[in-house]
Structures are given as C-alpha cells and as structure tokens.
Amino acid sequence: MIGPPSRQTDRETEIGLYIHVAFCRSICFYCDFNAYAGLSQLIPAYVDALVDEIGMLPPSLSDRWPLGLRFRIGSIYLGGGTPSLLTAEQIGRVLAAARQWPTADDPEVSLEANPEDLTGDYLQALRDLGVNRLSIGVQTFDDALLRRLGRRHGGAAAIRAVEQARRAGFDNINLDLMFALPGQSLADWRRALDQAVALQPEHLSLYNLTIEEGTPFHRWVMAGRLHPPDDDLAADMYRLAIDRLAAAGYAQYEISNWARCDHRRCFQSRHNLRYWRNQPYLGVGAGAHSAFGGYRYANVRAPAVYITRIRTRQSPVEGESIEYIDQRRAMAETMFLGLRLVEGIAVADFQARFDCRPTDVYGAELTELAAAGLLEVTDGRIRLTERGRFLGNEVFVRFVS
Ligand code: SF4
User: Is 178 near ligand 1, meaning CB less than 6 Å away?
Assistant: First the structure.
C-alpha cells in the first residue's frame, strides 16, 4: 500500500485540461450531462470564473492536498454542454488563461460543437485561436430521428458544418454518432454510417444510446411510450459499424472510437487516451472532474454556485466528491479503463507503475475471463477479444468489485 502523496514535491506531471461549458440552447431528450438550458445570461460571468479557476490551478483540497505539485498541459478539451455557444472572444480568453501554464509543444486543442453554430467566420476564428481538433455532435443525419432525440439541427446542417470546417482549414475532425435510437432500423444506421464515411472525418465516435434515469427518454420508456431497439439489434448495429468502418480504412482503437492512422499521422484523441490510460487530468467549470495528485474530485455542478464560489475565492470543489485513490483502486481503474482500448494494457507498464503484475492481483479474474473467450493475453498485453468488446461491461465489473 502506498500512503497519501507527500506534501512537498517538485515533480512536473503532464495533464489533460478539461474545460466544461455547462450551457445548451435546449436539453436533448436523452441527455444526462451537466448541461443547462435557459441560463445563457450567466455565460459572461461563467467565462470570467473559468479564467480565474484556471489561474488558480490546482485547487486547494484543504489539508489533504499535496503542496507543490507542478504540471504542464499536454492537451486541452473544451466539452459540455455546448462550448460552441461561447463567442470566439470568450474561447480566446479561456485558452489564453490555459496557456499561462507550461504547455507541451503542439498540444491537442479540441472543441465540441453543435452543427448549427459552425459558420465560416466562427470556424476561422477558432482556427486562429489554436483550436486544432473539432468534435461535431452529429448523432445522425436523419431529420425525423434528430427531432425524436430533441436535437435542434437537421442532417443537412451537419454536412454543411463539416464542409465549412474543411474550408476553414480543420484537418482533424471527429463526428459523434449515436445508434440504437428509438425507431432506428439497421438500414437507417447503415445510411448514417455511409453518410459519415462520405464526409471523410479523421475520427468517429459511435455511442450506443443508453436510457439514463431522470431524462425524458427514461420517463417515456417507463410509460411505454418509447421503445428503444432490443439488445440484439443494437449488437447488429455495432457489428455493422465495425465492418463498415474497417472497410473504409478506419482503425478501431477503443470500444466506441475509430481513427485514421498511418505512418504519417495518427488521429486518435490524445486527450481521451489520457482517461483510458488512467493518467492525470484537471477539470475546470461546473461539475468538471479531476484526477490529480492521487485524488479524484469534482466541482460543484450548478453554474451559479460555481460562479459564486470562484468570485468569493472559495474552492469550487464539492467536498464530498474528494476521494483518495489508493494503490488497489488505481490498479482496478487501470485495468477496466485500459481494457476499453483495443491495444489493451501492457503488462510491463502495469508492473512499472504498481510494482506487481496484473496476474499477481487479478489472476483468478483473468483466467476466468480468458476461459470465457472475453479477453486474451498475448505479446505482453492483456486485451479484450472481439467478443469481449461486445460484452465489455461484463468484463469491467470484475475489476470494480
Ligand atoms: S447538446 Fe449535448 S450536452 Fe447539450 S443537451 Fe444535447 S446532448 Fe446534452
């Protein structure tokens, strides 16, 4: 067992900086993110708070915080919510605050955007500010399905957004798509994939719709008014995506993510790879999570409370969220996060980090899962089999308990 981190250290840790923009024009019917509609009047004060919070990083976790931890920023990710609701000037202020900290050469700077916000001038301004990766929330190109999801844009707006982004010089574009939508057939999903591939994005994230408690979709499913596709159809859709994207030259590198990758350039998300490799990150903004200095913690969720905390120089961290990550927990997280990656976990890396091999700690679990055909140990790596990727949750839960 390791103890809490020492209180003085001059180690410099490379982190990903996540910046949460908690505002949306309206709330999609399936959404359970920390996002709010009707609060756009708070945006200027929220941006001020983001700038101040970034300037004060890392936050004080009272007497638990190890003093003197230094970091440099390896990637920046503006997520939400809808970051593209911010003006270019506001985004510029936030990025300038981040760049006051030591920053890696050529950091990845990603911004999530909704298609309807991406005008030519706005995209050009984002490029000029150093945003070099755009993640567009497309979900599907079918207008009827988009309406059913409560999305504000149509399929044509998504196509236009990608074309405009290319014209502005973006050469690293991700499209978010969702499948297993209520009323979506396998043929609908095939059309969505074909349309996405025709736009030639560098990266694709494909999410199986999950019905989350507290959302309108959950209420409608409970009331029998909404019928998502059954698990077999969802699995067929996932299978179709794997085959279709492989044929189009995309390499799957995570359960839900595909990228173009060749000897010249690999478009895997550098920021998100940090999460799956269980590496440190700092999050700013309402509800943003951090994993740093041996702790996990989250900021208060409500934007108005977050703004007040920052204005009054109080820590934005929700006290109850602070968790010390002991060695046992860190090993479990490294396993179930790393197994999401197609490359899996390098036994040597695990050993270098924890001074023991995965088989020393999880021998029984690994043997059982391998016997069930869900994972394999080859070439010094532990990874899911293809069957395991379909049944990932059954594997991950073995490391959580
Ligand atoms: S745009 Fe994204 S964050 Fe906003 S409500 Fe829709 S799904 Fe949620």
Answer: no
